[in-house]
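Record filed below.
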Amino acid sequence: MREVIATDQAPGAIGPYSQAIRASGTFVFLSGQIPLTPSGELVTESIAAQCEQVMKNLAAVLEASGLTFANVVKSTILLSSMDHFATVNEIYGRAFPENPPARATFAVSGLPRGVDIEIEMIALA
């Protein structure tokens, strides 16, 4: 079973992908979110503001899936620079006060629309 999950509480896909896919009724794979508001406005202020928007977007997609951050089992964080790691880690960590998911964090040479952060997640229903 494959179910597309979409919400207008997070930015719509800007390419050929879905906000999330529920697979076999168990796993939900969330596409990477960048700091776009649901109305399509790009948040370009500080890395903190960008990360806050990304986490809001992910929370909205999880909610549309009937899930919360407590259901997340794996995440991947992509950063424009590892100089952002401490700030992102602090903001991201607020969503996981106990038993955080497995995670990988990478610095990459470029992200969509020139942003400084993108986060994708896998959740277990």
The mean pLDDT is 95. The longest helix spans residues 47-64. The chain has one domain: 2-124. The first strand starts at residue 2 and ends at 5.
